[in-house]
Amino acid sequence: xxxxxxxxxxxxxxxxxxxxxxxxxxxxxxxxxxxxxxxxxxxxxxxxxxxxxxxxxxxxxxxxxxxxxxxxxxxxxxxxxxxxxxxxxxxxxxxxxxxxxxxxxxxxxxxxxxxxxxxxxxxxxxxxxxxxxxxxxxxxxxxxxxxxxxxxxxxxxxxxxxxxxxxxxxxxxxxxxxxxxxxxxxxxxxxxxxxxxxxxxxxxxxxxxxxxxxxxxxxxxxxxxxxxxxxxxxxxxxxxxxxxxxxxxxxxxxxxxxxxxxxxxxxxxxxxxxxxxxxxxxxxxxxxxxxxxxxxxxxxxxxxxxxxxxxxxxxxxxxxxxxxxxxxxxxxxxxxxxxxxxxxxxxxxxxxxxxxxxxxxxxxxxxxxxxxxxxxxxxxxxxxxxxxxxxxxxxxxxxxxxxxxxxxxxxxxxxxxxxxxxxxxxxxxxxxxxxxxxxxxxxxxxxxxxxxxxxxxxxxxxxxxxxxxxxxxxxxxxxxxxxxxxxxxxxxxxxxxxxxxxxxxxxxxxxxxxxxxxxxxxxxxxxxxxxxxxxxxxxxxxxxxxxxxxxxxxxxxxxxxxxxxxxxxxxxxxxxxxxxxxxxxxxxxxxxxxxxxxxxxxxxxxxxxxxxxxxxxxxxxxxxxxxxxxxxxxxxxxxxxxxxxxxxxxxxxxxxxxxxxxxxxxxxxxxxxxxxxxxxxxxxxxxxxxxxxxxxxxxxxxxxxxxxxxxxxxxxxxxxxxxxxxxxxxxxxxxxxxxxxxxxxxxxxxxxxxxxxxxxxxxxxxxxxxxxxxxxxxxxxxxxxxxxxxxxxxxxxxxxxxxxxxxxxxxxxxxxxxxxxxxxxxxxxxxxxxxxxxxxxxxxxxxxxxxxxxxxxxxxxxx
Length: 863
Prior knowledge:
Blueprint: H1 2-22, H2 24-49, E1 53-60, H3 68-82, E2 96-102, E3 109-115, H4 119-123, E4 130-134, E5 145-155, H5 172-177, E6 188-197, H6 200-237, H7 240-248, H8 251-254, H9 272-276, E7 285-296, H10 301-313, E8 320-324, E9 327-329, E10 332-334, H11 341-351, E11 361-363, E12 397-403, E13 409-414, E14 421-425, H12 432-445, E15 449-453, H13 458-467, H14 470-473, E16 476-480, E17 489-490, H15 504-519, H16 527-549, H17 562-567, H18 569-576, H19 581-590, H20 600-611, H21 613-619, H22 628-634, E18 637-641, H23 647-665, E19 678-682, H24 685-702, E20 708-714, H25 722-731, E21 734-737, H26 742-749, H27 758-761, E22 768-775, E23 778-786, H28 790-793, H29 803-813, E24 817-818, H30 819-841, H31 853-860
Helix pairs in contact: 12-13, 15-16, 15-23, 15-24, 21-30, 23-24, 24-25
């Protein structure tokens, strides 16, 4: 019975085999149809599952940094997001993609793409100091030349990529590879890393293959060793030593010839955990697909970019590495760029479908460098879209030459509306003033107004050839207080003048504050001096208001009339008669009660001013052409050269700077759209700060709304008063430092955190700066730049032969007169005012110096 069953089974198998053989054609067609149907269905389901994707862009802050734990959490989150698709989605469609994009407009854009159902999961990242934003689908940028590459893991199946530390940033080689992309040339580089969860059955099959392959290799190695042992034994018997031993040693001592036994070595035991390596555990294991596409409109640029990216990926190379698939045949490369691989590449690129190579298994920790945006430890290149390039004639403000990643240099610049206040620090002669002169020249040629305050005057001689153009000549003003000869020309200024529509109380406040700031007066230490000076200036300004109203501007008083007002009863009586009742009451009651020893506090500084012929000529005329408010509104180019940095000079500078603040605040009577930007360049800020410390702080705090900008240059920032230093650093749009003492530089580098080592900055070459800028509300830098020089930026604009013409025109525009004439006019102005007031009041003319014994005694105190 058993034999019948066996023969029946064999007969059935034989008949089945014959049937299959006879119908093999139809069976093959049916199998092909089923296979084709399955492939079509899988592709349809994959396309449908990948049709709806979500796109998220991760934007890190400047201080973004992360650790291994956060990276592992993000990787686990990505794996979970990849599995969040439809249940019927094929395995190859369950992917999440990390897309790194560089097109010359940004250093590197970091995006994550996954199933639409995983949007909330992808938006919530474990990273701090990072902004997650929804992004549109990637747009195809059409370029003339495009190259493609697919990278796979090449090496032992269980081997790992190199463990790359997170500091310095592992993305740095990739960022360097795309640093010199140019958007105007159509450059584009994209790196797509696709991750898919590992299927259990596929992983088990792969493990079996790896272990079985290791066992087969061990058996082969064992057989080779047995062959080597047999060959060694045969070789040994043919050796001369063996034959001599056979002849000389008895057989009993040799152990017998026929008893030699060779043991075949056993195959070594395969350590499963060691052989599997990273494949031993399921957690954190993913299938990996890395694709790169580079494009450009210029022949060869895309190919070079791809080679740079290949080199950047070598940072992960160890026992296994990321290398591109394909092969070379002579000068030709066959891979993703050629048929039949290219259509498959484009499909995977456009849809997110994954079809990794056999060994493309990796753990999350191996890919840690690619699972995060660039951190604070990355050196990001400065692109033309980050900070523009200056060209003569543009409306930008040049800052310095920056060396791009490809080795070329470009003159970077900032926009007018972004550059509000600037601080330059560093040793003398290292390029601070030259950089400011380049900016001032650019502003002048762009039609903008500026005032350059230079106590040394050298800047005017340096910049004159580049400003000697008709359009700038007509706007140039020169106030040179360093003159010495009587025939030298000088413009003049009356701080108390009310011509030009000035408001009396603003003029009073500006003048009093200038004196108080320069002399260190306050309500606590000099209340009477401030009161006396305020009342005196109020009285003189009231006289000037009547003179201007009577169209007698040449009858106005100056600050040098404060002394006769306080010491000369006759002159005081003439002035008091022009005041209102309340003001007269103070002079007739309160002033008479003031002790005589209180007046020298006010009179002594005025006496020092009057002792200088140049300052007396500059401030002693009733009407001057120095009007900084008009300069602001009409975009004049004003050069002011104070005579020095002594106490008297600081008082003059305080008057000038305070008037700049007054003029800026007075622009509140204009609509914001009508306010024309105006720049103040203040060289040797230490000397200016001693005279007008609070004023400088107020300029940075209050004049932004009135479109008055300030650039300050100083050798030692810590020598500035605390309020000025704090205000400058708080509101500075641009910070820069040249070489200098480490302690002096530290105040600037401290604003940049640890990005610049003060010791390194202290050793900078001449004209080199570390600087940070503000562009479109974003801080750029600190960058290492080389300060520009006038001759290399504006060489084509230099007109050396027109230097004298510029100076003459600048003086003509200020209606400058000779020093001798102005000094004489200042000396006679008091008598002119006396006579005019006598006519106005109808009082009898009181001779100068006449008065009571008390007044005579007071006056004697100051002789």
